[in-house]
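Key idea: predict the complex, not the pieces.
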Amino acid sequence: MIPAWMTKEEPIAPPRDGGAFALRTVNALGGALARLRVQRGRDGLPIPAAVKLLLLLGLLILLSLARNPLLLLAIAALVLGYTACLPARELGSVLRPALGAALLALLLFLPAMLTRPAGRWNNWIVVGKVFLSVTMLNLFNRRTQWNQITKALRQLRVPGVFVFVLDLTLKYIVLLGSLIVDLLTARSLRAVGRDRHKYRSVGGVMGVTFLRSTELSRETWEAMSCRGFTDDYRGL
Amino acid sequence: MHIPENYLSPVSCAVMGAAMIPVWIHAVKKTNEELPKEKIPLLGAGAAFSFLAMMFNVPLVGGTTGHAVGGTLIALLFGPNAACIAVSVALLLQAVIFGDGGVLAFGANCFNMAFVLPYVGWFVYKLLRGREDQSSKARPYVAAAIGAYAGLNAAALCCAVEFGLQPMLFQDAAGNALYCPYDLSIAIPAMMIPHLAVAGLVEAAFTVAVYALVRKTAPDLCYERILADAPDTGKKSRLPIFALIAVLIAACPLGLLATGTAWGEWGAEEIAEIVTNGKALGYTPAGLEKGWSLEVPMPDYALEGMNEVLAYILSAVIGVALLVIIFKLLSLVLKGRRNPA
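Result:
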């Protein structure tokens, strides 16, 4: 049974005080973290990550060297065809960065295209290549789990220390990111109504995060020494 | 049937474009009401069918070529309103990337192929279809065939009238036409005879073949069932449809076998030599010669010095992929009908 006072509606209209900054940070961080963490079982094709990575590198090199229009067309057909198979929700996040990059390339070329119409065709090809490269990279990124990527790097004989640093960085991004999300959420929950000192919290959040990161790195180092880490890192 | 750049005067283009705006608004609104949200990405497959159908050029009587549009087919699967959107997007892609149909003439092309065609096709189909419980097994297919035939020819007629009005309305001081040089007495027979004789039949055959496949493999895709809120049949395989698209892509170079240019789609450099009623035109209309045109990335589905067949197939793949992507993105924006459950 719900008591009567709970069912009553109490309109509250907090004054607008530009609190969007904290919320936006939380949202952006939360989205990025969710992507890192929830990336599970979404690999479209059961291809080992190392093969995918090689394929990606090969295609990128081929695309940037290709002069034959037919070859460019074939790569475009391949990339767009694969993109078309993605579920609708993922399409936006794959295409948006690619369109942004292509737009930037177009802006850079715009003066040249206006003053020298003869080279316009080549400029368009470069814009197309930028779009396709970024799309490919995004596709790989979206369809491969992070730990699979670092494993693939190890299999491709990338020195262990690089893979180790990359892996640790990713882990710390998740840990420290969720710490920031927690801090900002707690702060916004406690700050009801007008909050004039919003920016004071920034320093606090950063300070706490920094302290926590040093703590974490010390703990990691200790744990690894205790377990007899021999500098050979094979991925997670 | 794609009206190229500069065949219609800019004024006619503006009028046709303005006529399409309320149609598009209506179509989007109705699609939002009628079509369940999960069906909108599949509209991309419908648009892909239309795009591919338009790549299959068939030789027509009199040395010109024509093609099916598939607008009635999409109307049968997703409703005429959704068909209007799907064909419009396919036409836009063709105009901007492949140079098939003018960018300025986009409104006119949409009026013919995205508005007249699917709506006429759908209403003829409905008229002949009868009530579902009474009709025989063959009746929907016959109705679909006649609807498709009627729709395509209605579109061709509109196109011919648009061409035919140009020389009557726009002439220079010497009496030479500025844009399309053929008046109604030439344009209508030149467009209608081949379309009545060949292209309409191709459209009907294409429509019935694909419609039969869909009714057998994925009956819940048919517009009548969507409208009637029919329960799921459980048969949901989309595989045959995408397999058919793949086969059509692989087969589309057959469209290259039809040599010659479609009536009313000549380039500015060839129009002076076109012979009509035993006499060549003899001049290039001023609007065509000096008209504006967009530099599209792949004019006529190929680039210079390419293997034509491969380029054609790759164009088809790119076109289909882009259409699927566009409609998947649209499905995020369009609200679609909520399911009662």
